[in-house]
Amino acid sequence: MKERLKISEMAKLRNLTSETLRHYDRVGLFKPEYVDRSSGYRYYSIYQYEVLGTIKELREIGMSIEDIHDYLEERNLRKSLSILERKHEELLEKLSELQQLEVNVREKIEFMRVISRSNPLNEIEHKRIPERKLITKSGAIHTFLELCYGVIELENTLQEIAPIVGTNRLGVLIDQEHLTQRNVQAPSVLFVTARGMTEPYSDCEYVTISGGEFVCSRYAGELWDRAECLTNLLNYMDSHQYMAVGPALQIAHTDISVTDVPSEITFEIQIPVANQKH
């Protein structure tokens, strides 16, 4: 046993690297007891073990170099307790964020699994869908440039972690009047489905889509490639005596956030309907 230790020996005792100790020296957090002027070698005292152990544990719980500096300076029980309580509050906040993120990722996985085994494209099906609240961007989009800026604007309103990738929350509204006129390429209003809001976001417009029966169909292609799919839905409604009772939703199911394969880019169009006989 010896009192004076080389940097590698001191690092090994605490399962750290020599570079970590050099960094602590450079930032003034943990200085060697002695530095040989001729060789530049750092030597530590075994009696510094407690301070280095404290630093290591504080780093393990996520404290910054600055916070550890503060912790070690003029230590006393009250000050140490206060700093640890503050750190505990930070950890609880991060834990809550991680729990939300886990739910978010799990829902993305579940949705993508459902999409991967969904009905074939271009088939028409009926769905009962509950009420939804949408956050919308004022004004219709006419060009791809407007689409890009509109999506960014909508995504920036969401106070959530990773809200869009691998979800079916983003889409456009096709006005009911345009459906009646069969104007399948009319400009549309961007939306993102609201979720888990305790209060409305400021500076946002909202649309409520009533729950009910929807005729739906999926197609492969980009946003503007909807004409055939939408026309097929409208023809189906005419032949089965259905009428639209609200705007249609064109929802991105898989997009460039999850695939680079053009044939995997899909949208679903949902039209709220009622039977004209009733």
TrEMBL record:
What keywords is this UniProt entry annotated with? Coiled coil, DNA-binding, Repressor, Transcription, Transcription regulation
Query: Which species does the entry assign this protein to?
Result: Paenibacillus paeoniae
SUPFAM superfamilies, A to Z: Probable bacterial effector-binding domain, Putative DNA-binding domain
Protein name from the UniProt record: MerR family transcriptional regulator
- The domain of life is Bacteria
Q: Where along the sequence do coiled-coil regions lie?
A: 74-108
By its UniProt entry, which SMART domains does this protein fall under?
HTH_MERR (SM00422)
One of its Pfam families is MerR_1
Under InterPro entries, the record lists: DNA-bd_dom_put_sf, MerR-type_HTH_dom, MerR_fam, Reg_factor_effector_dom_sf
GO terms (molecular function) for this protein are:
DNA binding; DNA-binding transcription factor activity
Tell me the ranges covered by the HTH merR-type domain, including all copies. 4-74
PROSITE patterns referenced in this protein's UniProt entry, alphabetically: HTH_MERR_2
